[in-house]
Amino acid sequence: MSRLAICPGSFDPVTFGHLDIIERAAKVFDHVIVAVFNNQSKDPLFTVEERMDLLKSATKDIGNVTVDSHGGLLMDYAREKRAKAIVRGLRAISDFEYELQITSMNRKLNAAVETFFIMTNNKYSFLSSSMVKEVAKYHANVSDLVPEAVDLALQKKFSKSSN
Questions:
Q1: What's its EC (predicted)?
Q2: pTM of this prediction?
Q3: CATH superfamily of 4-159
Q4: 3-15, pLDDT tens digit by residue?
């Protein structure tokens, strides 16, 4: 049986911090599904389809990674895919409290699925999609924070609007 993990997130947009976690998870698990979820508490800049396209572009050279999306609960998706592991990235202690709550609820919903936390590379510990969008909105250079396709997509989104 292969070791399948799901790396969930909103990925709005995908950053080099996300890719760091995805690449490292791909070294541990036989197959990693990067699953785009729509977080109702966030107002996304990119559609689910756009986020999936950007992720597919960013992960195209990682042979054991696929990109998918789901509109419901992560644990329902894990059951559907027969995944036994969830991979989450942690940037700082502040992430841990939030992730602990989510993991505890997920365990209540499906105790057969384990959550694995991967600490981000220190050079990405400050990085978030929200921060990238905020600075890109003001036309700051984010090319060292996101893949080229994401940088271009951000430029296109924000060229349509003024500050």
A1: 2.7.7.3
A2: 0.92
A3: HUPs (3.40.50.620)
A4: 999 999 999 999 9
